[in-house]
Automatic annotation (TrEMBL):
<feature type="domain" description="ATP-sulfurylase PUA-like">
    <location>
        <begin position="9"/>
        <end position="160"/>
    </location>
</feature>
<feature type="binding site">
    <location>
        <begin position="399"/>
        <end position="406"/>
    </location>
    <ligand>
        <name>ATP</name>
    </ligand>
</feature>
<keyword id="KW-0597">Phosphoprotein</keyword>
<dbReference type="InterPro" id="IPR024951">
    <property type="entry name" value="Sulfurylase_cat_dom"/>
</dbReference>
<dbReference type="GO" id="GO:0070814">
    <property type="term" value="P:hydrogen sulfide biosynthetic process"/>
</dbReference>
<dbReference type="InterPro" id="IPR027417">
    <property type="entry name" value="P-loop_NTPase"/>
</dbReference>
<dbReference type="InterPro" id="IPR025980">
    <property type="entry name" value="ATP-Sase_PUA-like_dom"/>
</dbReference>
<dbReference type="GO" id="GO:0005524">
    <property type="term" value="F:ATP binding"/>
</dbReference>
<dbReference type="Pfam" id="PF01583">
    <property type="entry name" value="APS_kinase"/>
</dbReference>
<dbReference type="Pfam" id="PF01747">
    <property type="entry name" value="ATP-sulfurylase"/>
</dbReference>
<dbReference type="InterPro" id="IPR050512">
    <property type="entry name" value="Sulf_AdTrans/APS_kinase"/>
</dbReference>
<dbReference type="GO" id="GO:0019379">
    <property type="term" value="P:sulfate assimilation, phosphoadenylyl sulfate reduction by phosphoadenylyl-sulfate reductase (thioredoxin)"/>
</dbReference>
<dbReference type="GO" id="GO:0004020">
    <property type="term" value="F:adenylylsulfate kinase activity"/>
</dbReference>
<comment type="pathway">
    <text>Sulfur metabolism; hydrogen sulfide biosynthesis; sulfite from sulfate: step 2/3.</text>
</comment>
<comment type="function">
    <text>Catalyzes the synthesis of activated sulfate.</text>
</comment>
<protein>
    <recommendedName>
        <fullName>Adenylyl-sulfate kinase</fullName>
        <ecNumber>2.7.1.25</ecNumber>
    </recommendedName>
</protein>
<dbReference type="InterPro" id="IPR015947">
    <property type="entry name" value="PUA-like_sf"/>
</dbReference>
């Protein structure tokens, strides 16, 4: 029988006194500003959540982890924890050197002694770790389009933990949790991993899992980084706190985990198990499609529904945590209670609301019955996600120069202002280049910076309930996707491809630029001497040839209405 190991596990922090001295010394070192994901990884490295890792993976560890889920000395570890950096920084660093690792505010969190520097084969990493080199997988997309080209590896000396201003009392390091279990006398603990709000079915299944294992329960939600588009962690934590009251007193603990998920399905499940072992738990709930990333680019699931359970079971002894089957709970109307789906006789009425249906009801402000969720949870979700017609959103028109983006966007702006209710901001390509991006040219790097600036401003507008209309060329698919992810955290992103052909744009040549581009007087001109990657699945494709502006704007308006964005 597994019982909790509550002895402290090793951390990578130096003592408080040494930390102050080290911090002074570190100020002289070359320094790397950590990305949001790296801050999450570093926190769990330093506090022992990623034990036995002692730093960002070296090349030998990385090869082993990618190939067969083992570090060079044979420890089970399924996910590469790597410090990816850009070429510019990498060029200034050589193995043998120490670097300071800083958070977004510039605070020094750790020193890393660089032992390894290499250029990874990202396609191999994608194939082996995530099962396919397919950009539809969020972690593969991150790998190719966000992560730097070079990896640095080496041990970490921890100076201080990242500062969190939110929910401090709900955050526990592995050793704090171990001490808590010891203090409470909890010998068996079932952990529940989640990135979603909890509804009644989750409460029932976690309660049942703990009861069956005769264990206490740890609700251990991820608040680092989850899947793009998930409900933000502030809202979720308020929901978890409301659900906590529904468990018998003193049986259940809620603790927030600053993990950056990869959505790696089976490998992720093993990783989650190891992390939970480090946090002192004895049992871990693994369900159907654990940490699943959604559909691949062919519209199929990346992993089989029980692959995660199978891989976990295979390594269960080594993980040191017992797997508990996630029971699929359904509501039986006749008995007005939740029961495991596989224990229900034929002929009874089973009620269920899918995730998609729940989102639809929230978006449209429809009823969400009490048998499905707790009123406090529904209220929190409604506060964050009011019906779509009251949320902010972004319309992103992309197309060649002279395709008509700005003209349509202007007409659309006026029509939306006529409707009223929400402020409308137009971020036109030319206007943005004048006010926000005047120093930028038209290289791929500069275009990407330009589009990400537009995306950032649009996401802020969307977050604050306004309407952002963007009308840049935005020629690159990956950059448009990055902007989509930024915005979908707060509201809808409506990509409109203004699909006027190159021939037509050139024929119109409203600014005389095509002529100059043909003559070679303007370099890197989209469509002539620079690429345009047409959107594959925009929300709307506008064929403008033979259609007047008013009609095009009207078509966009109808699309917005169909999506429930305007009332
Ligand atoms: S991008 O790629 O999205 O950053 O471009 P954008 O900011 O929309 O800027 C496009 C406008 O700049 C003018 N212009 C050029 N466009 C494309 N390629 C080159 N080399 C270039 N040089 C100048 C052009 O007027 C674009 O305006 P629109 O409204 O698209 O015609």
């Amino acid at each position: 029988m597994t019982t909790a190991n509550t002895a402290p596990i090793p951390e990578l922090y130096v003592s408080y006194d040494s930390a102050a001295k080290l911090k002074m010394e570190a100020a002289e070192l070359p320094s790397w500003d950590l990305t949001a994901r790296q801050v999450c990884d570093l926190e769990l490295l330093m506090n022992g959540g990623f034990n036995p890792l002692k730093g960002f993976l070296t090349e030998a560890d990385y090869d082993g982890v990618v190939e067969n889920m083992r570090t060079a000395d044979g420890a089970l570890w399924p996910i590469p924890i790597t410090l990816d950096v850009n070429d510019k920084f990498a060029d200034t660093i050589a193995p043998g050197q120490d670097i300071a690792l800083r958070d977004a505010e510039g605070v020094i969190l750790a020193i890393m002694s660089v032992t390894d520097k290499w250029v990874p084969n990202k396609s191999r990493e994608a194939e082996k770790v995530f099962g396919a080199d397919d950009l539809a997988h969020p972690a593969v997309n991150y790998l190719h389009n966000t992560a730097g080209n070079v990896y640095l590896g080496g041990p970490i000396t921890g100076i201080q933990q990242p500062v969190h201003y939110d929910y401090r009392s709900r955050r526990d390091t592995p050793n704090e949790l171990r001490a808590y279990f010891r203090k409470m006398g909890w010998r068996k603990i079932v952990a529940f991993q989640t990135r979603n709000p909890l509804h009644r079915a989750h409460q029932e299944l976690t309660f049942r899992a703990a009861k069956e294992a005769q264990a206490n329960l740890l609700i251990h939600p991820v608040v680092g980084m989850t899947k793009p588009g998930d409900v933000d962690h502030f809202t979720r934590v308020r929901c978890y706190e409301a659900v906590l009251d529904k468990y018998p007193a003193s049986t259940t603990h809620l603790s927030l985990l600053p993990l950056a998920m990869r959505m790696a399905g089976p490998r992720e499940a093993v990783w989650h198990g190891l992390i939970r072992r480090n946090h002192g738990v004895t049992h871990f709930i693994v369900g159907r499609d654990h940490a699943g990333p959604g559909k691949n680019s062919a519209g199929e699931d990346f992993y089989g529904p029980y692959d995660a359970q199978d891989l976990f079971r295979e390594h269960e002894a080594e993980i040191g945590v017992e797997m508990v089957d996630f029971k699929h709970m359904v509501y039986v109307q006749e008995r007005a209670q939740y029961e495991p789906a596989d224990e229900i006789e034929e002929g009874v009425t089973v009620l269920n609301i899918s995730g998609t249906e729940l989102r639809r009801r929230l978006q449209e402000g429809l009823d969400i019955p009490e048998w499905f969720s707790f009123p406090e949870v529904v209220e929190e979700l409604r506060r964050t996600r009011p019906p779509r017609a009251q949320q902010g959103f972004t319309v992103f028109l992309t197309g060649l120069s002279g395709s008509g983006k700005s003209t349509i966007a202007n007409a659309l702006m006026v029509k939306l202002m006529e409707l009223g209710g929400r402020p409308v901001t137009l971020l036109d390509g030319d206007v943005v280049r004048k006010h926000l991006s005047s120093e930028l040219g038209f290289s791929k790097e500069h275009r990407d910076i330009n589009i990400k600036r537009i995306g950032y401003v649009a996401s802020e507008i969307t977050k604050n309930g306004g309407i952002a209309l963007c009308a840049p060329i935005a020629p690159y698919t990956a950059t448009r996707r990055a902007v989509r992810e930024m915005i979908e955290a707060y509201g809808a992103f409506v990509e409109v491809h203004v699909a006027t052909s190159l021939e037509e744009c050139e024929k119109r040549d409203r600014k005389g630029l095509y002529k100059l581009a043909r003559e070679g007087k303007i370099k890197e001109f989209t469509g002539i001497s620079d690429p345009y990657e047409a959107p594959e699945k925009p929300e709307l494709k506008l064929e403008t040839e033979g259609t007047d502006v008013d009609n095009c704007a009207q078509t966009v308006l109808l699309k917005l209405e169909q999506m429930g964005l305007i009332g």
